[in-house]
Amino acid sequence: MTVQLDPARVTQVSSLTAQYILTQQQKYLPRAVPVPLSQKTAMAGFFSPQLLDRVRILVLRSERIADPDFYPMLQGLGFKSLPAQSGMAAITLCDVVVSHGAFSNGLLFHELVHVEQYRQLGIPRFAELYVRGFLSGGQLRSNSFGSERVLIGWPIRVGSE
Ligand SMILES: [Zn+2]
After folding, report:
1. Which of 24, 68, 132, 145 lies at 20 to 30 Å from 89 by C-alpha?
2. How far is the CA of 9 from the centre of ligand 1 (A)?
3. pTM of the shown model
4. How many other CB atoms sit within 10 Å of the CB of residue 131?
5. Helix (H), strand (E) at residue 91
6. CB burial class (10 A; 0-12, 13-18, 19+) of residue 111?
7. C-alpha 111 to ligand 1 mean position (Å)
8. Cα–ligand 1 centroid distance for 34 (angstroms)
């Protein structure tokens, strides 16, 4: 089932998503730590030194990231398969990356691409593209990157900080 949202509703959901990102970032930032030197070294050349120094990471041990509190509203509009944040390997909240397990280099690399996207786009625009990606087909796909279709296509310019 495809659900269409009118432009005003897309704007509203994008704004709520941006608020969710900001709230979660502030919640996890106090416990987050810098990227270990060994992984900074592994990522050097792909991301700017400033980005690698600024980003903070957190591995959750006995808690899961909470879903946005506007999910019930979206479900009321007909969205049946919203991406469960608790089921994601990790989530990037601007420059704070929160994971449900240890950071492999592959996982960290993927999330650092999002950090760079946030840097270039800002939280409001990042949230809007995420929501638009989801609405343009993410809900019809079973893979967790369905909601990232628009973001994955975003041409990032690495090292331009
Ligand atoms: Zn991603």
Report:
1. 132
2. 24
3. 0.85
4. 23
5. strand 90-93
6. buried
7. 6
8. 20
